[in-house]
Protein: Glucose-6-phosphate 1-dehydrogenase
Amino acid sequence: MAEEKAAVIILFGGSGDLARRKLYPAMFGLYQRGFLQDRFAVIGTARRPWSDDYYRDIVTNAVKDQPGATPETAEAFATHFYYQSHDVTDAAHYITLKELAAKLDAQYHVGGNRLYYMAMAPNFFSTIAEHLKSESLLTATGFNRLVIEKPFGHDYQSAKALNESITATFAEKQIYRIDHYLGKEMTQAIMGLRFANPLVAAAWNKEHIQNIQITLAEAVGVEERAGYYENSGAMRDMVQNHVMQLLAYLTMARPQSLTPEAVHAVKGAVFDHLHSYSQKEALANFVRAQYAPAVIDKLTVAGYRDEAGVSQSSLTETFVAGKLMVDTPEFAGVPIYIRTGKRLTRKSTQISVVFKPVAHDLFGTQAKANVLTIYVEPSEGFSLTLNGKVLGQSTELMPEELRFRHDERAAKAAPEAYERLIQDALQGNQTNFTRWTELSQTWQFVDTIIAAWQTTTAMPTYPAGTMGPKEATELLARDGNQWVWQPTRVQLAD
Ligand SMILES: NC(=O)C1=CN([C@@H]2O[C@H](COP(=O)(O)OP(=O)(O)OC[C@H]3O[C@@H](n4cnc5c(N)ncnc54)[C@H](OP(=O)(O)O)[C@@H]3O)[C@@H](O)[C@H]2O)C=CC1
Ligand SMILES: O=C1O[C@H](COP(=O)(O)O)[C@@H](O)[C@H](O)[C@H]1O
Structure:
């Protein structure tokens, strides 16, 4: 068990959806594991006029059904929560917040340790950072760390402006930019898989890898989030951050050590070598699309343009597929195909590494390419397909799969992404957070693709419940490749 951490956590957006669904359960997980124990307090802030008691009921309800929770532990946990009605644009409210934080600091003996967690709409991030500085909320003793939610900007220029504003208050080593995919079990397993297995490490390069495929598929549609999503789309919502981070873990060189500096150095080198596209190349190598109405399991599902809050002429993409390349000596020329979308066949995040077939095939054309698949979610594990032999007196080959999955119950009991990330932030470990340089590079890449799309109103569609438009299949077919994972609604298992 990790050693107890003492801190006052100031949560901006304490009444919000993220706080209730993810952050309180994550903190409760840390509480159950003893990482948060007696010496911590959380100040939840939002405009609505709640009392501490009302807020504690909200927190209790958010955690009471967590694995291992009892009514007693949930309530004891909630006693550490305090609420302040606070408008982040009102300087006077920061004075009250400062006084409350100082009082709790002394009451819980936290030694000045502060975590400022921005869990509200990103247009407020700069304002909060500026007020934390102007109203002198940062402590002179202990640590002051900022945890900042996504999206980090809307494009390169706005991300840069946001970064300038938060770095006027916090140094880079105090900033923890969240990408929750970095907290996922199987994202964190990629380094072990790649660098602790000589067999895998030896084949992890352009000599042996034919292509890499990254799929982040969601079955849900835009849900209630059209207000946000209409201004975002799949490229900004999923590709600029989650997909790019996975791509970096898959193609980076072996770090010198597991320190944040060493890991960020090799990740940064990947983004330095992202193969850039002209507008014409961007249009050829990236596909966008929107989901169209369909009947799924006898239920009619609306198309994107018919969703509440979406305009009939919307050009927001709900699906992206693309071909990227990393021009490092190890990976130059290896296509990295990515796809992500809403209303696809099923929820699944998986990565397939397709190896080159044997050069001189003793067995005619029977030998198939080896494929290593990493299952990120919902199941967690990996599989490797190899060429085996048909049983009996024959030289005929047959594909065999070596398959590992974490036990479902054990996986559920393991810390969830936000729990790991909050623990990391409290421990001062920045490995699983993003650096500004990474965001700067990925935004510039993504901006080029989006700018190319803005030159056309072409928007292919795909029926809800399928794996995207035919253009996404053609993208790979052009190179003689195909998506390894092609689920249909009748064959849903990983
Ligand atoms: N929800 C999710 O699953 C995910 C969310 N995120 C990110 O997390 C952040 C928060 O999202 P989410 O929780 O969904 O958003 P919500 O809209 O649910 O919550 C927003 C919060 O901000 C508060 N708020 C709004 N205006 C002000 C103001 N002027 N002063 C003080 N408080 C204010 C609201 O309370 P009140 O109205 O009372 O002021 C509320 O607590 C966003 O950056 C989002 O992109 C990231 C990944 C997933
Ligand atoms: O960041 C986001 O991620 C979720 C998908 O996350 P997952 O952990 O469930 O895979 C996505 O639904 C959302 O649109 C996006 O903002």
In short: The mean pLDDT is 96. DSSP finds 16 helices and 17 strands in the chain. The chain has two domains: 7-149, 182-477. The two ends are 33 Å apart (CA to CA).
